[in-house]
Amino acid sequence: MPGVNDTMTVNGVSIDDGFAEAFPMAGTAIQITAINEKWALEAARSMTGFATSVIACGCEGGIDKVLTPAETRDGRPGVRVLFFSFDAGGLEKQVTTRLGQCILTSPTSACYADFDSETKIDLGSAIRYFADGWQISKKFEGRHFWRMPVMEGEFLCEAETGVTTDGVGGGNLLLMARTTAQALAASEAAIEAMRKVPDVIMPFPGGIVRSGSKVGGKYKGMMASTNDAYCPTLKGVTKSELTPEIGSVLEIVIDGLSARAVADAMRVGIKAVTDLGPEEGALRIGAGNYGGNLGPHHFHLKDLLP
Amino acid sequence: MTGLTFRKREEPAERLDLSPLTPSRLAGMAERDIAALAVGTSRMGLRVGDVFDVAMGDAAAIRFEGGSDRFDRIGEAMDGGEITVAGDAGVRLGRMLAGGRISVSGSVGAHAGSAMSGGVIAISGNAGERLGGPLAGEMMGMKGGTITVGGNAGVRAGDRMRRGVIFVTGAAGEDLASRMIAGTIVVGGRAAATPGRLMKRGTLVLCSGAERFAPTFLDNGPADLLILKIMADAFAKGEVGEVPFHGAPMRRLGGDTAVLGLGEVFLPL
């Protein structure tokens, strides 16, 4: 078993003595509201589509939580959405492009800032010219909004939102199981619990990655390639991190507005997986890292045990 | 520490210029020096000590006990702190106010909040003409901040207003928001004559309607807009306070098309 250090066992699930290595990212939060939850989710899902990995998508985005009317700025159903990118400039470009194509266009939608900070990125200020001179600026009580006449009525959008450079991208859990069905069951249990943690997103489809990657690859120009050490079909032909009984591995990647939020999400994810146990779920929990030399945030699994 | 208090002895025989009595100008001054400040506007040469009993206190919180419609230019160009007037005030209250808060329990004269850029003016009574407006020759009136009037506003409130919020609980005099450049004005009562005449941009919410409009205002029909609810909620939680609209649909007029035509007036349906 090369490289495996499963020093802890909780409810029959072994947990590696390893750590997730994560990186600083610029992050922001916005609130999308609509006439009902269905249309708020339609807008949010559209906006966070193709936002799984910053490497190829330009940003990572996802739904933090569904908001009740009492939690939104305009008293309608809403969704809190988070986005992360390498820097504030890249984040603004991604968020405003998606805002213009996915929120402005979505019936009954409105968009508000949902993160306070001194540093801001544009929201409505970046897309107001779509209104072709009919845009209306409203400033009151310390807030700035843009109103844009559209065919459906009027699109209301806050001018800016706050951005943090204390965001963290790349927190992760590797869930290793006998079968794909068991790996998926463990992952789904973890995701269900982690979605209750505020200020985090799991940006991949359904929150789960089946094709975890390593940095670089044998082919020129590849920024990332398959994580062969965790591919069960390559056991024996590569320097595998998997024991013989592991037949499938799924990964959960976590981005958060703070390191604490990422740690909290990993903690509840580990608990959900260990609560499920090895018969229905994962045999083993690990975490991906690059030796600790690339990312400043190290989330040690032993510090996150239930 | 209590505030610095100016207690009126008797009604002054002339109009007074009280612009020297702001928190930043009085900070650190001795009582004798304050009493010696000139506030008269005639050859009588009245000084603070001739008109007021001065009770020293924190200059950041100035209080006038006993107001007068001859108390002009209170809080002029103030940039912080607080002034409270128990009674009436004269003209140009809070003109060019940049920050802080001025509260008046009575009524005020013309040009209150003229060309102010920030801060809050809260008038419990009525406001005179050209509330927030510019003086003759100036290009812009109010440029920011908040004015609330518990009673009525005189003619041409919000003249050449550029930014900020005015809320008049009662009625507005003739030609509210004349030549308005931008900003928001809410009037609980009826607006006299032709509100918004020559307004370029800006928002008027006339909760009890208006006497009439210039023919260059065009009816956009009923409008169910989120901004009305967002504004009402924000005002209720902020300096403006509760306003008489709550986000329900209102009739929208666009104008004044005699000029830029990007302003709007909201009326009850």
Automatic annotation (TrEMBL), chain B:
GO terms for biological process: methanogenesis. Coiled coil: none annotated. InterPro entries: Formylmethanofuran_DH_suC (IPR017550), Glu_synth_asu_C_sf (IPR036485). GO terms for molecular function: formylmethanofuran dehydrogenase activity; transition metal ion binding. This is Formylmethanofuran dehydrogenase subunit C. It comes from Jiella pacifica.
